[in-house]
Amino acid sequence: METAAAAAAEQPSESEVYIEAPQVNYAPYNFDKTALELARAQWANYADQHYLKNCKWSPDGTCLLTVIRGGGMNVFELPSELYTCDTLLQTRTIDALTPAVSVQETGLIYDYDWYPGMNSANAATCCWLSSGHEGPIHLWDAFTGDLRCSYRGYNAVDELESAMCVTFSADGQNIFSGYKKNVKIFDTGRPGREYTEIPITHQVSTIVASKAQPGVVAIGTVKGVIELVSQTDGTLRNLCKLKGHKGGITSMAFSLDGSRLYSGARKDKDLICWDLRVPGRPMFVLPRECSTNQKISIDLSSDNKWLVSGGSDGKVQIWDVTEQHYPTVHLQMQLHNDSCNGVSLHPYRPILATSSGQHHNSIDPMHHTRSTPVYENALCMWWVGPQQEDDLLATIIKAATNGTA
Length: 405
Description:
single chain; mainly beta; Methylamine Dehydrogenase, Chain H; four-stranded antiparallel β-sheet; 33 strands; about 5% helix; repeat
């Protein structure tokens, strides 16, 4: 399949092997029980604090991407047995995750996003974007970790400017990037410095594109305002502004049908659901713990039913947003001892990915009453589908309960 991303990428060599797409088994999420840990990768805390910054499943569900502060970008593959299994034993051994691809990008990574048409059977589509401190937007090869191309934005005095956030359009043909004073739109198939520039009142902090309504983009700013715009003929037309958050917008997600927008902000414990059919007033507000400036991500399941959020208290909360009445927490799980900054639901398997860690202030030895921080820089995969008790374990527990063990 020819795509704009494939045109921008280097053409595969004749010796390159195309990987056959795995057979998939679609299974619904089951949030009636707590999550069962499947796999984990752990990073020690060094002087420069190697905490993780979010995690994202690839659109085809074959791999998971995360960024480690000071440790670059890493891609982890989904264990092969998890593609087709219907249920798992509660005594299953936790796998140790090892990066399949590592990109030791220097400097601070601000944002990243998978190419929406990614298919592991077509190597040309397997790539992701990243933006970082004092550098251009990069397009990376998900098989080799090589840099395919770059997209460069410049300010008014022709100095290279860093994008604070990036995302692909729903069809992958364009790249939307947020800067201090504008949004720049690049043609994915034409890397370099050609772009359309749209002025914005405040610095852009996050940006997402609607999959249901091509061209509709939500732009979150550091002032807590969300600007909903529509792209037509290379320009952006303002649709409405959404105001209700106390801090800068850090995470947003469109519903599958494009009728709702969910948003969260820094140092703001409210998750707001906006009804875009009647914009301007929140549809409902959901509580979560977000007591720091850190980005705490949210995600929506592919069936449009479950909204998931991390929390600075290490908890993951799940709401059933298809309920007609005001949604209440369906399940709350303490999955981490440190801040859970990233959550990502697998596109077709009942698997939740989470990432943990945050910046901790140095401990002052003169103040002995200050509690010692807990460091947990981890990437985890959790099973949220049907679980089965081990027969032997169940027998032992039953015997112990009856006093015969």
